[in-house]
Design a protein that fits this description.
single chain; about 500 residues; mainly alpha; 2 domains; two-stranded antiparallel ribbon
Length: about 500
């Protein structure tokens, strides 16, 4: 769902705040809990260069032209009127405006088609779905089939407004169907098509080789993970998850690296940060606010991966492809020359137009038929728990003494807002909006942006992906990020802001 100032993929407030804010997410794979499907692939190890190649005008152009196009679509922010957006977001906005009110109906049709095709493949086992992409997409486990069915049911109930209010309300099922689904359909339609420009023509190799040493030293991650953080910062956290997922499935991230990157580098965009500060009436503090978010997020990215459950992840690579990464400079040339050579080597082995079209088609189908139902199902359930049950209030009781220890005013009132972000990132802003203390609103706003794991979008994406993360691990990472960043945010607020 987009807003008047965020036209990317970070989304708008769930409850009835659409009066004040105009309301307007992929990974591929078969699910973290399912056995990974060893989709037949050619020996990519023989295709992906591990050493730089001589620089030629043709090779440099093959690297530079697609990569610069990818950078312009994903990493360059534009100011359009009073909005901030990226090139791909502008294209998604155009498609969203063109389709308009038809998008929720399209989403319902897509969800129903997903259930019908999945059920048909599971029961009839047609020849066209016994192997390959169709098999991977539709021959899913009973758990994921049930998730697709539940997503379709929730969407139908919300669209036709029949059934319990807990499902059909504007701030539960309405958020998922009318706000988030249109963004997923439009934003990731273009993401699936354009992402190869950023990742398949050498740009990841170029940046990865340039910043390999600091990223290995500080975060114990490949240098190319810097692209995930930048794409998230400029576009949205869901773009970062999409890149991490694809890099893992192509053998460029290990299981540990993919899990760390997806849960610690999928930061929210500047546009969404502006939305939060505006909604909570702390817009005049945006600069210290965002600096605080960056500092706390970087510290968390250093600490959290060194603690369980992330520290226990193995550095094994996706079995069908194995390890495809080589950022270590083993040549005598300088870093820049080596990085360019690696980029050109990758560009020389980039997929051809036909393969790119086929891959884009599968990615779009996986987003629409595989991801959308899961996001709708998990997101609706999470929002129902947050809006209609006292679960998050009960869970937040231990946070009251911690907030009091940190000298945060209105601790009891603010406590639920510290944990409710697990359901949806905007819920903390909704709960804390009317707290009198500006310091408290500042702390809650910063915290909501550093927690990163929220089930209405990022959590559902990660569970659907092949990255090996279970729901209890997402809960643990969310809690760790909360406990680590909250004292940092409070300290900065007391010492430098208020």
């Amino acid at each position: 769902m987009t807003t008047s100032i965020d036209s990317a993929a970070d989304h708008t407030p769930p409850r009835a705040i659409s009066d004040s804010v105009s309301s307007s997410v992929s990974s591929s794979g078969s699910g973290a809990e399912q056995p990974e499907t060893a989709k037949p692939q050619k020996a990519q190890k023989d295709l992906i260069a591990t050493r730089p190649v001589p620089l030629t005008a043709r090779g440099l152009m093959k690297f530079l032209v697609p990569s610069l196009l990818g950078v312009s679509f994903f990493l360059v922010p534009f100011s359009v009127g009073d909005t901030i957006n990226i090139g791909m977001g502008l294209m998604a906005d155009w498609l969203k405006a063109t389709l308009g009110s038809a998008l929720p109906a399209i989403a319902v049709a897509v969800l129903c088609l997903s259930v019908i095709l999945t059920g048909f493949v599971k029961l009839a086992k047609p020849a066209w779905a016994r192997q390959g992409a169709a098999h991977e997409l539709f021959d899913v486990s009973p758990v994921w089939f049930a998730m697709r069915a539940l997503g379709a049911i929730f969407a139908l109930m919300t669209y036709f407004q029949w059934g319990p209010t807990q499902v059909t309300a504007a701030f539960t099922g309405g958020v998922m169907l009318n706000d988030l689904a249109p963004v997923l359909l439009t934003f990731f339609f273009f993401a699936a098509i354009l992402l190869p420009l950023l990742v398949d023509f050498g740009f990841m190799e170029f940046i990865g080789s340039l910043v390999r040493r600091p990223f290995r030293a500080i975060f114990n991650l490949p240098g190319r993970s810097a692209i995930d953080a930048t794409a998230s910062w400029m576009g949205s956290g869901t773009v970062g998850v999409l890149i991490a997922t694809q890099q893992y499935e192509q053998g460029f991230y290990s299981k540990r690296e993919a899990a760390v990157i997806a849960t610690n580098f999928s930061v929210v965009s500047i546009a969404f940060a502006l939305l939060v500060t505006s909604f909570m009436n702390i817009n005049h503090l945006f600069v210290p606010f965002y600096l605080t978010v960056v500092i706390a997020g970087l510290i968390a990215a250093v600490i959290v991966p060194r603690l369980p459950p992330l520290s226990r992840k193995r550095d094994d690579y996706h079995e069908p492809v194995g390890c495809q990464i080589s950022e270590e400079n083993q040549s005598d040339c300088g870093v820049l020359r080596y990085s360019l050579g690696m980029a050109v080597a990758r560009a020389e082995h980039a997929p051809g137009p036909l393969k790119l079209v086929k891959s884009a088609g599968f990615n779009v189908a996986d987003i629409f038929l595989g991801l959308l139902p899961v996001v709708i199902a998990i997101g609706t359930v999470a929002l129902m728990l947050a809006e209609f049950t006292p679960v998050f209030t009960w869970l937040s009781y231990p946070m009251i003494p911690l907030l009091e220890l940190l000298q945060i005013p209105h601790a009891a009132e603010a406590a639920p807002a510290t944990l409710v972000g697990f359901a949806d990132m905007f819920l903390p802003a909704v709960l804390a909006k009317d707290i009198d203390s500006e310091l408290t609103r500042f702390v809650i706003a910063c915290l909501s942006l550093t927690q990163l794991i929220y089930m209405s979008e990022i959590g559902a994406l990660l569970l659907k992906s092949k990255i090996p993360l279970k729901i209890w691990e997402l809960v643990a990472i969310f809690v760790l990020r909360t406990l680590i960043t909250l004292p940092i945010i409070a300290g900065i607020a007391h010492l430098f802001v208020f």
